[in-house]
């Protein structure tokens, strides 16, 4: 066993760093918050980045025409009452 719990490869680390840099440049240039360009740059460099970053995360997806905000808030509050981390 390697004992290494870091799911990020060197390529993934580079993608995250480049994405953060692109986002910072976007903000500095007054072109928005940088969240879209940062993600696009990161995913272009490592298409598997989201899977790597979400390896140890549990995910709940709320998808519908109506009631998404209410449902999401109810789920978040229930989880918040049950444990320390909800984002």
Describe the structure.
By secondary structure, this protein is mainly α. The chain has two domains: 8-56; 57-87. Helices cover 57% and strands 0% of the residues. It contains four helices and no strands. The chain has helices spanning 10-28, 35-45, 49-53, 68-82. Helix 1 runs antiparallel to helix 2 (35-45). 10% of the residues are buried. The model has no long low-confidence stretch (mean pLDDT 88).
Quick summary of this structure?
By secondary structure, the chain is mainly alpha-helical. 57% of the residues lie in helices and 0% in strands.
Describe this protein with a few key phrases.
single chain; mainly alpha; extended; 87 residues
Helix percent band: 55-70%
* Main β sheet profile: none
Low-confidence stretches: none
Query: In whole angstroms, how far apart are the ends?
Result: 32 Å
Number of helical stretches of at least 4 residues: 4
List the helices and strands and how they pair.
Blueprint: H1 10-28, H2 35-45, H3 49-53, H4 68-82
């Amino acid at each position: 066993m390697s004992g290494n719990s870091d799911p990020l490869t060197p390529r993934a680390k580079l993608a995250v760093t480049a994405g953060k840099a692109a986002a910072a440049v976007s903000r500095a240039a007054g072109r928005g918050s940088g969240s879209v360009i940062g993600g696009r740059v990161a995913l272009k460099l490592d298409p598997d980045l989201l899977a790597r970053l979400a390896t140890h995360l549990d995910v709940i997806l709320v998808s519908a025409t109506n009631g998404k905000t209410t449902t999401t808030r109810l789920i978040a509050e229930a989880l918040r009452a049950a444990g320390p981390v909800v984002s």
